[in-house]
Each structure stands twice: as C-alpha cells, then as structure tokens.
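Researcher: Sequence of Major facilitator superfamily (MFS) profile domain-containing protein follows. Predict its structure.
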Amino acid sequence: MVDRRTPEMCEKEAESRASEGPPWPARFRSTSSCSSEGARAPSPADKQPAAPDGGWGWVVLLATILVLALTLAFPSCIGIFYTDLQSQFHANNSETSWVPSIMTAVLHAGGPLCSVLVEHYGCRVTVMLGGLLSGIGMATSSFTQSIGQLYITAGVITGLGFCLSFQPAIAILGHYFVRRRAFANSLASTGTAIGLSTLPLFAHFLLTHMGWRGSFLILGAVLLNCCVCGAVMRPVHQGSKKPNRTRGQPDKIENELSSTGHHRASGKLAAFLAALQKHMAFDLFCSNKRYQIYSIGVTWMMLGFVVPLLYLVPYATSHGMEQNRAALLLSILGLINIFMRPLAGIISELHCFSGKHIYLFSGAVLVNGLSNCICGIGASFSVLLAFVGVYALSMSFIGSLLFQVLMEIVEMPRFPSALGLITIMESVTLLIGPPLGGLLVDSTQEYKYVFYACCCAMVSSALFMGVAFYLLERDERKTMDPPKHAAPLSLDCQYTGITPGSRAVQRSGSETEYITSV
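Model: Prediction complete. Tokens:
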C-alpha cells in the first residue's frame, strides 16, 4: 500500500501524538513511513543514554591523558636527536628541521580524515589504528638510510598516527562527561604537559645508551601503547551502529542519486561536496568576521609558537651546555604546564574576564612572543631557565583559551567544522616554520635569530587579533542601538539573544557530540 501522506501531514500527526501521550520508542519510530520521508530524524540525545560522568569514564580519562602525553608532546623531543641526525645524514639545519615540522603538520592536517574514520568506525578503532601507525612509523625510522626516508617514516606515517590517536581521544570525553566535562578536560590537558616533562629525559636516556636508531625503535614500541589506551575507549552506547546511525545529508544524497547507474557519478560528487561542507567551514570563514580574524591570527601565531621548543636544546648545546641539562629545560617547561594549565582555566573563568577571553588570549600570545627575547641575552642555564618559566606560563594560558575562544565565536553545532578548518590552516605554518628557522641558522650561524623571528611572528599575531577584535566591536557598538529593556548581548558570541521568559528553541545537534576543550 502506498503512503500518500505529505511531510507536512506527517509532522502534524507527530505533534498530535506527542500532545496525547508519551512519545513512541525509537525502535518503533524508525519503522514508520513518516520517519523516512518527512519527519525529522531523532536527535542523538534520544538515541544514546546519558553520559555516566564517572565510573568507566575515569578509565577513559586516564587513557586520554596517556594518549596526549605520547602524541602532542612527542615532536618536541625530536630536538634531542637533532645533532645526531645532522651528523648521520650530513644534513644542514633546514633539512633536519623538516622531520619535526612534517610530523607536526600532518598531526594537524589529518583532522578531516580522522573525522570520517570516527564517523564510520568509532573512536576506539581509530585510536588503535593511530597507535599502530605511529609505532610502525617510528620503528621503521630506525632503519632509514637517508633524511628523505625519515621524512616519510617519522614525518608522514608517525604524524598521521598521532592525528588518528589524539583527536578521537579528546572527542570521546564529550560522550563520557557532561556535568564534569570542564574538570575532565582540564585534567586531560595535563597529558601534553606530562609528555613534555618526561619524554625529553627518556629520549636522552635512550640516546646515551642505545644511539638514535635504537632509541627510535624503542620509542616506536612505546607509541604502541596508544593501542592499549584506545582499547579501553568503549562507546557509551553499545549496539550495532548502522541501525542507530543518523544519516546526514551526504548519505541521503548518495543513496538517492546512486540508485541508478546513470546518476551514480553525479551522486558521488554531490556526496563528496556535501561531506566537504560538513567537515569544513568555508562558508563560516566567509560570513563570520570574528572567525575570520581568529583563524588568520592563530595560523600566523603557529609560525613562531612551536619553533622555540625545537631549537631550545640545539641552542643550549651549541653554547657548551651538557645535553642532559638542556633536556632538563624541556622537562621543567612541562612541569610548569602541569600545574599552571588548570590554574589558567580557573583564572579565565573569573567575572572580570567575562566576554574578554580574546583579549586575555592575545595578551598571553604577546607575552609568549616577548619571552623569546630572553634567549638573546645569553645561553647560560639561568637565562634559559628564566625563558622557560615565562614561556611556560604564557603557554598555559594559550593552551587553556585556544579552543574556549573558538567556542565563543562560533555556535556549537559548527564547532567541529570550524576547528577542522583552523587545523588545516595551522598545518601550513607548522610545516614551514621549523625549516625557515633552520634556513636562518644556516645563513647566520646563530640560533638566537630564530628566537627573534619567533618573537616578531607572535607579537604581530597578538596585536592583529587584539586590535582587530577591538575595532570590530567598536564598529558594532556604533551601529547597534538596542532598546533599554533588551537583554544585554555578549559581543564575543554569535548566538541568538533570548529575552527573559522566552522559550529556548532546541537545536538539532547535541552538545555532547562535540569537543569542548583540549
């Protein structure tokens, strides 16, 4: 029998059913003809149980901390092997610096691919696949015979494994924690700091006793522990994925247009374009001025944010400092981050900074850039210790506010795609930053000019974001003339204002589906 009801009739029928009694269970709604054509698909909140906010979630949180310690902090310990790689492959500073730069760039640029894998296979499988790739990449790096081979093994393969491990590890916390999400994310962010404080010392120990080849082999085995961490990240909602999976617009287009052989090619193209729009935010970049300013500023900031960590150990050892003391500087930087990141999050939540997080973030970027000038004073342990202290303090605020500011600029349903576009843009500057620093060292034979260049990049980025946001808000205050009885609107958000007493409209997306902090 053919159902001749229109989508409007289905919606009215659903509303009348809702007013008469409790809603139908999800398993009965899925078999209705209205649900397949006109009715809106049930939200994820209707399909999945509430997040436990504890229990097995604490095990998942511990696994996330370990994954972040092994992935995000790993590129910084490559500086321990910097001089050994130079002498082994007879490479200059620019050629050697491509190894950590490719690793970091691929780590950030693989976000869209990671999102597709998570959507099809889940966080657990994706994290385990990333751990397998990163372990294989570092293990095979110990057998390379040229610097070009190292670009592929340690750079591309290991970097892609890091990307597939750390992004799903962060995302799954949103499913396990709701009420305690801020606390869980603040604890998870200490994973990077733990890695910064332990990996350099461990890498130096391996280098002293086994050389760089043996060190890479053992580090590859250590990275395989990401597979163990991923194995405990079981999904909150147990059951088959395909029946409960909410099909989005790309799947709908592909199923409709691929039903006949004539339209199969056009259906795949339409599905690809729709998926690209889903996982990227090109329209948001063109329409949202705040997102435009922030993404450009953060991309430019990354040109000088990571480079000092890569050149700190070579700079110290080139002036006669022992390598173990130089590695200790990175460990101290990580220890400061462990204690300061949660404190930075608490400070940013003070009432005096309400609606001003972008200026607090710009100030932290400014201080971080100016701290590089300390390295120009000298290369003694006390001078570099002062640099590490100021750099670590500002780095803690940058890490705590980087995603918080983005959440205030865009709506939560668009946050994953907005974050994906920023990571793609960041990967470009993260890729070219270290080689440009190496080229500067090769031409001047002085490491201090690298820190000066990083200072210029960071300071200019901070001034650009701070001044641009101030001018934008000043222009909006001039054009806006709200009524006196209207509720004040926060200038750092793009959400629709809701007057007191009005009924909020439920969004189609659930906030538990999205990354909230790192």
